[in-house]
Amino acid sequence: MHSLPSHESLVAELRELRRRGLPGLRHCTRDALRAAAVAAGLCTGVDDEQSGIEELLGSAVRRLAGGHPVRDDDSCDPLARAAAHSFGLFAARRGVPGTDRRKAAAGVYGVTTERFRKSQEHDVVAELAAAVLAVAREAGAGESAAQRVGAVAESASAAAVRSPVHTPAAAGPPPRRPVRPGTRPAGAPAGRITVRVGPIEEVRDVDILVSSENTYLEMSKTFRPTVSGALRRAAALRDASGEIVDDVLSRELGVWLRTHGRTGMPVRPGTVVATSSGALAAQGVRRIHHAAIAAPAGDGGRYHVSPAVLDEAVRASFELARHESEFLSLPMSSICFPLLGTGRGGLTVETVARRLLGAVREELRRDPSWAVLLVTPEESHARALMAASSGP
After folding, report:
1. Are 276 and 256 in contact (CB under 8 A)?
2. pTM, whole model, 2 decimals?
3. Number of neighbours of residue 181 by Cβ within 10 angstroms
4. What count of other Cβ atoms lies within 10 Å of the Cβ of residue 26?
5. Residue 162: left (phi > 0), alpha (psi -120 to 50), or beta?
6. What is the β-pairing status of strands 272-276 and 287-297?
7. DSSP labels, 282-329
8. 188, 208, 211, 197: which is closest to 155 by C-alpha?
9. Where do runs of H (alpha helix) occur along 28-119?
């Protein structure tokens, strides 16, 4: 897999390209864009970089639009529309002057050109850069997967405890969704729950990892020993020295909050928001689902988690997974849950095990085409899960 440029370098080049427009690409600094296009398999170098970079930007904008063609109407994601206007990616808009492109992009948000320049344009360029990296990263991950010929390797610690839990078949024929080979955890057929011991950030070849967040959708610090902190740390993009250059998950959650007008305000407990998987794409992870389950209590140093909210979060995550599988053109069939709410949320492992298993079983009755992995770093917690699975 080709090395990828940093998010920061892409943002800098995209800002210059936005000003000059695609016809002026040859006069822009484009080392990072060329590297990304090469990594995505869209060009081989200097000779075909112009077409490769333009194709890369088109793919990135379609990714912002959920995998659909970008349309200039309210049915399309505003970020994707604004990006397409900003860079002249709509048909017959390639050579439009920069001031007119910015005016059209500002119109997507219903703001003045100046306000757009100072505010939304920063998000548009940053998100386009992230989408460029995602397109290149997924192309590279697909290449690596083909080279592995579907082989799935597990560490000894991750394989220490694995116990399948059989789930009753759903009444009537199951939904027929295309399932791509190799996406389920090793040894986990559809409709089955697998328990595994190991850190969630080391899980491989599972489409969706679920993270537990507070109701403000503020992730844990990267140094904290929490599921949220571990996934934030593992998904971040780093430079050659190991320094984080793109805090992918936190940044994308921030964009979601701003887009939905929830910055600094809580969402309803049980809400689930999806982001890309950042650097975890190299491990075969496609999406991170952020489940808002912990409500700050008292002075904010403690959290409260209602056991019932676990049912809501599981339902919401499966619903979102089905939606993304269909509308993002990401055929997904596997999902991984940690023991939500057992950390600072204060719920006992036994309580979470019963609620989580009950909610997951109910979802598999409705749609047994999914494989589910329950992961915990503690063997004693895994035993509690297995005990709960054998209960009534």
Report:
1. no
2. 0.59
3. 7
4. 10
5. beta
6. antiparallel
7. GGT--EEEEEEEEEEETTTTEEE--HHHHHHHHHHHHHHHHHHHHHSS
8. 197
9. 31-39, 49-64, 78-86, 98-109, 113-118
Coil/strand/helix, residue 176? coil
Q: Write down the architecture of domain 155-389 according to CATH.
A: 3-Layer(aba) Sandwich (3.40)
User: What is the tens place of the pLDDT at every residue in 191-219?
Assistant: 789 999 999 999 999 999 999 999 999 99
Token readout for 273 is: 């928001």
At 169-192, the pLDDT tens digits run 333 333 444 433 334 444 455 678
Question: Using an 8 Å Cβ cutoff, are 290 and 252 in contact?
Answer: no
Cβ atoms < 10 Å from Cβ of 86: 27
The radius of gyration computed from the CA coordinates of the chain, to the nearest angstrom, equals 22
The DSSP result for 180-217, as a single string, is: -TT-SPTT--TTEEEEEES-GGG--S-SEEEEEEETT-
Element (H, E) at 128: helix 120-148
Polymer length of the chain: 392
129: amino acid identity, one letter: A
- Please tell me the distance from the alpha carbon of residue 191 to that of residue 170, in angstroms, as a whole number: 10
**Contact predicate 133/237, CB 8 Å:** yes
Quick one: tokens of 171? 């009444």
Burial (0-12, 13-18, 19+ Cβ within 10 Å), 1: middle
